[in-house]
Amino acid sequence: MKHRIFARRRGALGALAGALLLAACATPSIFVPETAPAPSDETQAGGRLKPMPIRPLNVQADCRFKDEAGYGASALLDVSYSEVHRFSASVSVPKRGSCHFDLADFEQVRKEPHVELRARDGCVVRMWEQGDQVTVAFAQCASRCDRGTFDYVWPILVDRPSGRCN
């Protein structure tokens, strides 16, 4: 008798768990107040955001920063018409170590839609623009860092008009 009661409860709990799981995956409807400004024609293409234009990347920067926690980075960039002329970067992660990147260790393998540098050890550096910011991102570059540091490395953002980075 007790076995049947527990079996029924388990079945009911399983059904409830399944219903909760489905409810958690449901996409809630988004409420947009009538006073919200309509997207401009510049950002719409058939009701969707327009993609960033593909154009040559041009950026020059010699910058460094350090945040309140001690995370810091420096970058030297000279990219003209998507051709990288100078590049070096260092990232310092508090209590973890640092990473170093230098153009001499890389070969440029792509110019558009983003600039891509690739090293023999598999490290990839990608650069692309988003408005006035240029992102310098790193992938598969643990060998260029002190042990365990690469897991804490963020992309470097460069403000193209001012040449500052963060």
Quick structural gist:
The chain is mainly beta and 166 residues long. It contains one helix and eleven strands.
Structural class, from helix and strand content?
mainly beta
What gross morphology would you assign? Answer: globular
Secondary-structure element string:
HEEEEEEEEEEE
- How are the strands of the biggest sheet laid out side by side? 7-8-9-10-11
Query: What is the radius of gyration computed over CA atoms, rounded to a whole number of angstroms?
Result: 24 Å
Largest sheet properties: 5 strands, antiparallel
Q: What portion of residues belong to β-strands?
A: 35-45%
Q: Could you give the distance between the termini?
A: 67 Å
Amount of helix: 10-25%
Please count the beta strands (DSSP E, at least 2 residues each): 11
**Mean pLDDT level:** 81
How many structural domains are formed by the residues? Answer: 2
**DSSP helical segment count:** 1
Q: What are the low-pLDDT stretches, counting only 5+ consecutive residues below 50?
A: 5-10, 16-38
What this model shows, in words?
This protein has 166 residues and is mostly beta strands. The protein folds into 2 domains: 2-35 and 41-49, no CATH class; 59-159. Helix content is 14%, strand content 40%. It contains 1 helix and 11 strands. It has one helix at 2-25, and strands at residues 44-45, 48-49, 59-66, 72-80, 83-93, 97-102, 106-110, 115-119, 124-130, 133-139, 156-159. The strands form 3 sheets. A 5-stranded antiparallel β-sheet has the order 7-8-9-10-11, with no helix packed on it. It has a 4-stranded antiparallel β-sheet with strand order 3-4-5-6, with no helix packed on it. It has a two-stranded antiparallel ribbon with strand order 1-2. A hairpin with a 5-residue loop joins β3 and β4 (72-80). The longest helix has 24 residues, at 2-25. 19% of the residues are buried.
